[in-house]
Amino acid sequence: MSVRLDVIHPGESSLISSLMLKKLNAWVHLWFGLVSGIIVIILGITGCILVFEEELKYALYPWTKAERPAGADYLPPSALRKAAEEALPGFKLGTVWYKGDDKAAFFSVRDSDSLIYINPYTADITGIVDHEDFFHFIDEGHRNLWLPHDVGHQLVGWGTFVFFILLITGLVLWWPKKWNKRGIEQGFKIKWKAKFKRVNYDLHNVLGFYSLLIAVVLAYTGLMMSFRWFNKSVFWLAGGEVKERSFSFSDTTKATSSYVLADQVDRAWQMGLTQIGQYNKRAIISGIPESIKDPLYICVDMYNGGWREVYLDQHTLEELPQTQAKMKEEPVAVWLRRMNYGLHVGEVGGLPTKIIYFLASLICASLPVTGFLVWLGKKKKIKKQHLQKTGKALIAVQPLN
Fold this sequence. Notes:
Elements: H1 10-51, H2 53-60, H3 77-87, E1 93-98, E2 105-109, E3 114-118, E4 125-130, H4 134-144, H5 149-174, H6 181-188, H7 196-210, H8 212-226, H9 228-237, H10 261-276, E5 283-285, E6 296-303, E7 306-312, H11 332-338, H12 340-345, H13 351-396
Antiparallel strand pairs: 1-2, 1-5, 2-3, 3-4, 5-6, 6-7
Helix pairs in contact: 1-4, 1-5, 1-13, 5-7, 5-8, 7-13, 8-9, 9-11
């Protein structure tokens, strides 16, 4: 007795493997999309709003504006602090942020969520507001889904990770089988005159492709902020060297009898705008240090989503070792870390980049909706085909009269 064994040729084996991988890719894309859909929608919509947070605040909130008298220049931090303390006794002021030309500066208030806005040219108080405003509410949704931080932060992080996988699997599904005229049209054009089902499919497939590059940047930068292990991995892959950041204090032996701390703060702020900083329209200066050994802190070069943290000896005004280098002098690994926020919010290229990010975020928010409708349509189609086959089978077994 002989038994015949069917032999699978290498070509057939490769085809079977390819089909299995395509099915696995489609399965991952479907179920990962269903699991992360709500998170992606929330992140996309809140991201659209936060892209233009600064512009919207300036347009909606009158206290953020500052009328500039002809020929006037910024008043130093000591003058703004004195005016704020006289107008509002009892407030313990923190840092002051100079926001730029024709914009009000503001003080943070220690042990409080309040912000004090003040005209940097005249020292007039323009408003006292609660930090817990509409944009803070939107920011909480974007960072934590309006849940407790420990829970929401993890959900956002892993939701972003799943979204990153969806982008890869989506690209595989989008890839045309043939790069002919029909394949290119299906991958790059939306048939607006077709039925709703086809238009919805194109909105998911085509717009998903067009937003892919920005979506990858959003996911990558989001993961950099969500997970330390991801941040460290990128830093290592980019050639970064892990170094312990030294922290020095002011040299108390350099204190003199004529030393006035408020004057030193003003001098440090002026140095930040005119000597240290390359982009000198905006700056943050720390408040009065609590001890004679604490350094003075200023934040300069606030441009296109980047900034530079500078620490000065409060007695000599010399830069301390923990001061960051200029952005253009940083190696790639450090640059990626420091510019991560600017890359995430679209400030890296100014207004044109923000517009592109807004549109990409809007598309990202729509993808779970259009994807769900695609899945729902296929599910109904399968159910209909099953009913048709069942009906035909029932007819076939009907006895003839």
